[in-house]
């Protein structure tokens, strides 16, 4: 475990669910899309800079949560991206998209299409995600509980 902290923008926009093999799993506070973010524990800002072992674990985590989103939510397509133009901390978006979502077929970033979760909706989605991951896969994170 390193002394890496979560970028303030991610902290403000997300709920921290726990830690997977290569980093922390966050839920974007936007009920319009099942939108997860993986944040590797690193000061590196680009995927190609990661150690091969960490990169392999990260890809396995991306695949694991991609399968979860496809099986647990009504999605037609997955968008997976590490953009980092606004938040330089390395993070990977895994977003479930539907042909009926308000941004389809465009991108969700900067679209202005945001509806925060109400507490019960947030708890239902978090439960669906955490139950979809085996208990040994999602460990506590020192960031857990942010921002709620």
Structure, explained:
- By secondary structure, the protein is α+β, with helices and mostly antiparallel strands.
- The protein is 28% helix and 20% strand.
- It is built from three helices and five strands.
- It has a five-stranded antiparallel beta sheet with strand order 1-2-3-5-4.
Cα distance spanning the termini: 23 Å
Oligomer: single chain
Structural class: alpha+beta
Strand neighbour order, sheet with most strands: 1-2-3-5-4
Order of helices and strands: HEEEHEEH
Please tally the β strands and state the result: 5
Low-confidence parts, pLDDT < 50 over ≥5 residues? none
Major pleated sheet: 5 strands, antiparallel
- Helical segment count: 3
So what's the overall shape? globular
Radius of gyration: 14 Å
User: Percentage of helical residues?
Assistant: 25-40%
Mean pLDDT rating: 91
Quick description:
The protein has 148 residues and is of the alpha+beta class. It has helices at residues 8-13, 52-72, 119-132, and strands at residues 14-19, 23-28, 35-40, 77-81, 92-97.
